[in-house]
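pasting for the record
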Amino acid sequence: MSCCRCREGERAAQSSILYSILNRGSPCQRTQPRTAAAQLCACASNRRLVAIRAPQLVFRAASEVLVKTFRFVKNVPCFQDLPAEDQLRLVRKSWAPLLVLGMVQDSVDFDTVETQQPSLLHRILTHSKERQQSTQTEIQDPGVPVGDVEGIKMFLVKCRGLGISVKEYAFLKGAILFTPEVTELECREYIHALQREAERALYEHVRTVHVGNTGRLSRLRAVLNKLRSVDPDSVAGLFFRPVTGTSSIDEHVLAMFYEL
């Protein structure tokens, strides 16, 4: 299924550039618009890829944030009491949203550039050797969909505008860390209770400190929901993979966790 509500069937096929080339002179082509841009799918921007402008610098900053976050996690008594396998599963599940939240707290920002990739038509029409070289380049650093990156950047800006306090950050991290939806948890019910406790503590803190500010809790809940929808592959592809290459991001993250 297409990623957007594009037209299907004969009309969609006839509007493509490749169809136009292969069917040049066909009678049906006279009814088609001459402007190729007018036929672009609305989801074309979602296929654009971007990469970090200064990957080494941002990689170092993101790694420092993650190390600081893991120190916080390891100092949570309830986390220490969990079986080692449950700790491992929770870290694997939560490292990406915890990193994004830590970047908000530490005011880490980044700039991106659009990656230069040949179009599908270019890869079809150019020499096979060039296509192989292009494919190798894409595997090394394909970039991240621009929509995912814009979502992360927008999230950072909105969160900083909330003026989240140190205690609120701690409660948010707890609610993200203790995720009972992780498969094969040995202490699932206990972890679920810890998540509820972190959310309740956040609610009590907001109710006590921000008296009359009824909208703040809903905004912080929206932050939680957004963090829970963070795509680990996009985060890894943006901040780590340009430096670590094709090595396992899980191994890299867990190595940082166990080295502390």
